[in-house]
Design goal:
The complex is a heterodimer of chains A (346) and B (319). By secondary structure, chain A is an alpha/beta fold. Chain A is built from 13 helices and twelve strands. In chain A, helix 3 packs across helix 4 (43-58). Chain B is built from 13 helices and twelve strands. Classes of the chains: A alpha/beta (346), B alpha/beta (319).
Chain lengths: 346, 319
């Protein structure tokens, strides 16, 4: 392998190549002090370079697992693994249906919509729903809520948590009369305790938090959802260098993907809308441009249709394009009442 | 290449005496050796006391250098290679197969460009299921956005199989799915490490003749390159070109078809153009533009660049 493909800094690479070390094999038999003398760098730096090179060398011998590459899985294994990752319900049956059961773990879901459509409400609902215990069909996990706009309201979260506990005890009463042992032990205050809240005030803090999240989640292994509300806010105003913005966003998208995959959690990011001039008319499109479009696994767009709120699956590798209505009530996100009217008339 | 003294272990003829002799003439590495006039060097070697050993050393270095480059091929050998080794793999989409004259060619780097949600991942998944099923080959899928959906692949495989009994179908599905290997990569250096591993295991496989890897998909390569491209240094640019040449080398040496996806960015006049810039334009052998009409879900694919067909041809199909 060429030395240019090792994850080292540009200046170190330049020094290596000008000294004649262009392949990994040329680095395999040299000691750190010789290398340091050749390149005129410190011994510790030379040791770092050799460590990186030997790490890549060690990866060369694929282990027995899959003969082709280390760390890969066959599609058959992945197909069966999917059954073990339950989805996070949104408390709205129609929405859950078009999402294939709810928000999926190990994926990044982007939700965008006009201001006031209910993105933050959906975020708070998901942060509460992820904590539904396993006995009631939930994940029993904790949530990380990253707030960039300051739109998280604790009183509303309390309201939604209380409604959730009430719903769970109703379910308990109705359907599990014989199994009273499974009482609802969860209290609204417990639910609020399990939401880890971060408030971000500028894009530097946002990038720093993304870097820190991996360590945070390794320490709190129960976290099953990370909500970023909203990811665009600090990147829209006053960003002079658009090239830098694209690079930062690209890096952030990959980090979020990595987080979702490595810790098997769901990542939900909210986005704002902007107008785009396409095909002769002004249309609403999600902010941050085309290069941000491949940073999510699924995309859901929330929009108004007359008086009703609708959600539409815009991009998904496995879900069909569909839309479903939903409503924001005092209890949180619920089914849209107009659906009930329709069934009654029949 | 490395300094001469690191070659000493493998080739004991290049002993310190030889190295001192070379150093006298300002030769410290193999590159310096190449730049020097070899007849003059040999003449100087004649005058030294140990001239035979020194001349053997010079011949040894020359043979090491000779071993570094690929063998020369003439036109007939290239034609034979193209006919026997470079097969065409069907993508599972009739429209694309028709457009490309059969499908993806082994030995070529094909790029799928398209705006968001135009069907690039779906085409990749269909190609995966088609190759794993029809061509009895292994597929390696490098995924950057967790969008590899095994259910979708199982659906595509099940679509075209006509085995009626459930047990047989289950067994068949398992065999096919076991041929597909998926790895998540989230930065370009991991991708290089994985490709390097793949290269080594392919070289070992050549001797054993197992189920060969036939298709390599990277979805999407633009999300790996965008975070490093641009900015102050040219490291990102160098890495992009290096990635392109590594993929083409893998395709040619091991008869793989390589498929990568790219996204579009806004160009002049609002017309979207492929991302990754001007340099990347010349790297893939075949570039296809995918677009989807929201209204009727029809996909249109057109050729932007092809090494042996006209560009501008288009076809449409349903996904």
């Amino acid at each position: 392998m060429e030395v240019g493909r090792l994850p080292i800094s540009a200046s170190q690479r330049g020094k290596l190549i000008s000294a004649g070390y262009t392949t990994l094999s040329s680095l395999s038999s040299i000691s750190a002090s010789d290398l340091a003398r050749d390149l005129k760098i410190l011994d510790s730096e030379a040791l770092e370079i050799l460590k990186v090179a030997s790490l890549n060398n060690r990866l060369d011998r694929p282990n027995g697992g899959h003969g082709i590459v280390n760390g890969a899985q066959t599609a058959w294994e992945m197909l069966h693994e999917e059954q073990f990752f339950p989805r996070i319900t949104t408390s709205c049956a129609d929405l859950d249906e078009i999402l294939g059961g709810g928000i999926n773990c190990k994926e990044v879901t982007e939700i965008g919509g006009v201001p006031g459509i209910g993105k933050t409400q959906l975020g708070i609902q998901l942060a509460v729903n992820v904590q539904i215990p396993v006995e009631f069909g939930g994940l029993g996990g904790k949530a990380v809520y990253i707030d960039t706009e300051g739109s998280f309201m604790v009183e509303r979260a309390m309201q939604i948590a209380e409604a959730c506990v009430l719903d769970m005890s109703h379910y308990n009463d109705l359907l599990r009369k014989e199994d009273r042992a499974c009482q609802v032990k969860l209290q609204p205050s417990d639910i609020l305790e399990n939401i880890f809240y971060f408030r971000i005030c500028n894009y530097t803090e946002q990038m720093a938090l993304m870097n820190y999240l991996d360590k945070f989640i390794s320490e709190h292994k129960d976290v099953k959802i990370v909500i970023v509300d909203s990811v665009t806010f600090h990147f829209r105003q006053d960003f002079e260098d658009l090239g830098l913005r694209t690079r930062l966003l690209g890096g952030m998208a990959l980090k979020l993907m990595n987080l979702a995959k490595a810790h098997s959690l769901a990542v939900v990011i909210f986005n704002q809308v902007t107008t785009k001039y396409t095909e002769g008319s002004y249309q609403l499109a999600l902010a941050l441009g085309d290069s941000w479009s491949h940073s999510c696994t699924n995309r859901v767009i929330l929009y108004w249709n007359g008086d009703e709120r609708y959600a539409y699956i815009d991009k998904s590798p496995s879900l069909r394009s569909a839309s479903a209505p939903f409503a924001v009530t005092s209890k949180g996100i619920r089914n849209s009442p107009s659906n009930y009217k329709r069934t009654k008339m029949m | 290449m490395a300094p001469l003294r690191s070659l000493e272990q493998e080739y004991p003829i290049l002993d310190p005496l030889f190295q001192t002799f070379c150093a006298l003439h300002g030769i410290f590495s193999v590159e310096d050796f190449l730049l020097h006039d070899l007849y003059v060097l040999a003449a100087f070697a004649e005058q030294e006391p140990d001239s035979e050993r020194l001349k053997q050393g010079i011949t040894q270095v020359l043979s090491i250098i000779d071993g570094q480059h690929q063998p020369w091929l003439n036109g007939m050998e290239l034609l034979a290679d193209a006919l026997h080794n470079k097969h065409v793999l069907s993508t599972g989409c009739d429209g694309i197969d028709l457009l490309l004259g059969g499908g993806l060619s082994a030995g070529q780097l094909t790029e799928l460009v398209g705006p968001s949600s135009s069907g690039k991942t779906q085409v990749c998944l269909q190609a995966v299921s088609s190759v794993a099923k029809k061509h009895i080959g292994n597929v390696v899928y490098l995924d950057t956005s967790n969008s590899f959906s095994p259910q979708r692949v199982a659906h595509f495989v099940g679509l075209v199989s006509n085995i009626s009994f459930d047990q047989a179908r289950h067994h068949f599905l398992q065999n096919v799915m076991n041929n597909i290997v998926c790895h998540s990569v989230f930065d370009i250096f991991t991708m290089f490490a994985v490709l390097h591993q793949l290269e080594i295991s392919l070289r070992m496989q050549l001797q054993s003749g197992d189920h060969r890897v036939r298709l390599l998909i990277i979805d999407s390569i633009s999300s790996l390159i965008t975070p490093i491209l641009g900015g102050k240094g040219s490291q990102g640019h160098a890495l992009m070109v290096s990635a392109g040449s590594l993929l083409k080398k893998l395709a040619h040496d091991h008869n793989l078809a390589v498929l990568v996806t790219n996204h579009t960015v806004g160009g002049e006049g609002g017309v979207p153009k492929p991302a990754l810039g001007e340099t990347w334009k010349s790297i893939p052998h075949v570039r296809l533009l995918l677009s989807r009409d929201r209204g009727n879900k029809k996909c249109t694919v057109s050729i932007i660049k092809h090494s042996s067909m006209d560009s501008g041809k288009a076809a449409s199909f349903d996904l």
